[in-house]
Design a protein that fits this description.
Structural class: alpha/beta
Helix content: 25-40%
Bound molecules: pyridoxal-5'-phosphate
Largest sheet: 8 strands, mixed
Oligomer: single chain
Radius of gyration: 23 Å
Low-confidence stretches: none
Strand content: 15-25%
Length: 354
């Protein structure tokens, strides 16, 4: 056995994906993209998404989409393509999200060279201030040009919220996608196939509000933990505990809770603050901030406290635990979305699907 290890409970992940496929379908969102970047597009995990009913696999990195090339399902590049990768984008992605006409021209050329037609979803920025056309006229100019390109298909429009600006996708905001869709119809007599209404932050609206013309969501966090990300609520029929991190104890000692001499900056250049609880029983585990930030660790043993750590170590207060922990014991943590993302990305953490 090697540690640290991330245990992925297959049944829970499958149940979450099925629950979300049902919920989106019931709300006229017929196209569900499962976002695979969180687990670095591990093909075994992607298979669970496909079994659960996703209609496409979406990832922000082309290296990840390459790993998915043998699956006969739409692959979507979530991050705007770099000029330097357009040849790979048309090869490994069926669809990409775009907001720059110079990139769209390069994609068109790359698709011509590859002898294929690549599908583009144009992103509009509805206030979150990350990617997307901000000025309407810029958007319509791009539509006009893309419609004339021989090797691009204008697949649809989309938006992304609650990532940078934390803007909550309220119905009146998403309604603007309706206006854009209608604008394209009125000006160019063209029907957009996909209206992509965002990520896990839009899920709270399902079943409450009729989402305008939205027929697609791109879901990462909600499939992983069953939570919508606007307010952090658990959705019915889902479970957040499908991802359990195991780490091994390498030291147990009683020590004061405040450093014994004058302090300066810690390993990450910050000035640490300590709570004086007196002498406490502390355990060191062999995982650190290079693998996961402390804030993403939720001990399964409710009496355990995560005190802090450095790049290779995490320090736990185990004084109040009922269990008499020994060096060599394995401790377990539930993870938030960032925790799953970080541990899957760390090459020092093994992933095991159970
Ligand atoms: C463009 C885009 N869409 C969708 C997602 C999925 O977001 P979430 O995990 O909130 O569902 C992301 C991020 O992973 C993204 O960058």
């Amino acid at each position: 056995m090697t540690y640290p290890k991330l245990l992925v409970k297959r049944d829970i992940v499958l149940k979450n994906v099925k629950a979300l496929k049902k919920l989106t379908s019931e709300n006229e969102v017929g196209i569900l993209y499962g976002v695979t970047k969180v687990f670095c597009a591990d093909p075994e995990l992607a298979k669970i998404y496909i079994e659960g009913g996703v209609d496409g696999l979406a990832d922000s990195r082309i290296q990840n989409l390459k790993k998915l090339q043998n699956f006969d399902i739409d692959k979507i590049l979530l991050r705007l393509p770099q000029h330097s990768e357009v040849d790979e984008v048309v090869r490994y992605a069926d669809i990409s999200l775009n907001s720059e006409i110079s990139t769209l021209r390069k994609l068109n050329e790359a698709a011509a060279k590859a002898g294929c037609r690549h599908k583009a979803i144009l992103m509009v920025d509805l206030g979150d201030l990350r990617e997307g056309f901000f000025q309407e006229e810029d958007f319509y100019q791009a539509v006009e040009e893309v419609l004339k390109m021989d090797h691009l298909i204008l697949e649809g429009i989309g938006t992304n919220l609650t990532c940078y600006g934390a803007v909550i996708p309220k119905p009146h905001i998403l309604k603007r996608l309706d206006d854009y869709k209608q604008g394209v119809k009125d000006r160019f007599d063209y029907d957009l196939k996909v209206v992509s209404g965002g990520n896990s932050s839009s899920v709270y609206l399902l079943g409450k509000e009729k989402l305008p013309s939205i027929n697609n969501l791109r879901l990462g966090e909600t499939l992983i933990r069953g939570t919508e990300s606007s307010y952090g609520k658990q959705l019915p029929g889902t479970n957040s505990k499908g991802w359990v991190l195991q780490a091994q104890i390498i030291e147990i000692k009683e020590k004061p809770s405040v450093p014994v001499e004058e302090t300066g900056l810690d390993a990450f250049g910050h000035e640490p603050v300590f709570v004086d609880r007196g002498v406490r029983k502390r355990a060191l585990i062999a995982i650190g901030k290079q693998d996961i930030v402390n804030e993403s660790l939720y001990p399964v043993d409710k009496d355990m406290i995560v005190l802090g750590g450095s790049s290779d170590h995490t320090i736990l207060d185990i004084s109040d635990c009922q269990k008499d922990y020994q060096v060599g014991d394995i401790v377990e943590f539930n993870l938030d979305y960032v925790g799953v993302l970080m541990t899957c990305t760390s090459e020092y953490v093994d992933v095991e699907i159970i």
